[in-house]
TrEMBL record:
Keyword annotations: DNA-binding, Transcription, Transcription regulation
UniProt superkingdom: Bacteria
Record feature DNA-binding region, as residue ranges: 32-51
UniProt organism field: Streptomyces sviceus (strain ATCC 29083 / DSM 924 / JCM 4929 / NBRC 13980 / NCIMB 11184 / NRRL 5439 / UC 5370)
Protein's name in the database: Transcriptional regulator
Gene Ontology molecular function, alphabetical: DNA binding
Domain HTH tetR-type: 9-69
Length: 202
């Protein structure tokens, strides 16, 4: 039976979504093409109708996962992001969590085009978070960007360290708790350092 162009596009999108989830869960080298296609409900032979190589799929799946991460951040201010991100729920949901936390270590060893996707995804996430914290003015924008980069790096590091511990390890929770409290305290301290808005003169 001939597959329509629309159906082929839907099939491709489904494969990419499946790959994004499996790569987050197991890493790029932790799942092969045959297993990935089976998980998506297709035969191994159908893979090359959609992609030239596994590397191409890795890049596209990463872009999709990074976009999903940024979309989940929309509307959250930095403190709300930290409360949600540096949490046991996020830590335990590797397959449905942040692509940056799950795959940055793997991405660092991949070709430049995949790392370029990561850089773009990180930049999009920083922009989304900064839009919720910055006030007009170049100096304020630079300060907000510095704060958001620092907050994101610490948040990702907390998840990575916690996941490196056994699931039932008290240290896994301790890392999350200590880092979350520290990041939130840093954000609150940064806000208190901002000059108060001037009141209009009577």
């Amino acid at each position: 039976m001939r597959v329509t162009k629309a159906q082929a596009e839907q099939n491709r999108a489904h494969i990419v979504e499946t790959a994004a989830r499996l790569f987050r869960e197991r890493g790029y080298d932790g799942v092969g093409v045959a297993e990935l296609m089976a998980a998506a409900g297709f035969t191994h032979g159908g893979f090359y109708k959609h992609f030239r190589s596994k590397a191409d799929l890795m890049t596209e799946a990463s872009a999709t996962g990074l976009s999903q991460t940024a979309a989940r951040t929309e509307g959250l201010n930095p403190a709300e992001f930290v409360e949600s991100y540096v949490s046991r729920e996020h830590r335990d949901r590797r397959d449905d969590g942040c692509t940056i936390a799950a795959l940055s270590g793997d991405a660092a060893r991949q070709p430049a085009n995949l790392r370029t996707e990561f850089a773009a995804g990180i930049e999009n996430l920083l922009t989304a978070l900064q839009s919720q914290s910055a006030t007009p003015g170049d100096a304020d924008q630079r300060a907000a960007r510095t704060t958001v980069i620092d907050m994101l790096a610490h948040s990702i590091g907390a998840i990575v360290l916690s996941r490196a511990c056994p699931d039932d390890s008290p240290l896994a929770d301790e890392i999350l708790d200590v880092c979350r409290q520290g990041i939130l305290a840093s954000l609150a301290h940064g806000s208190s350092d901002q000059p108060a808005a001037r009141r209009p003169e009577a």
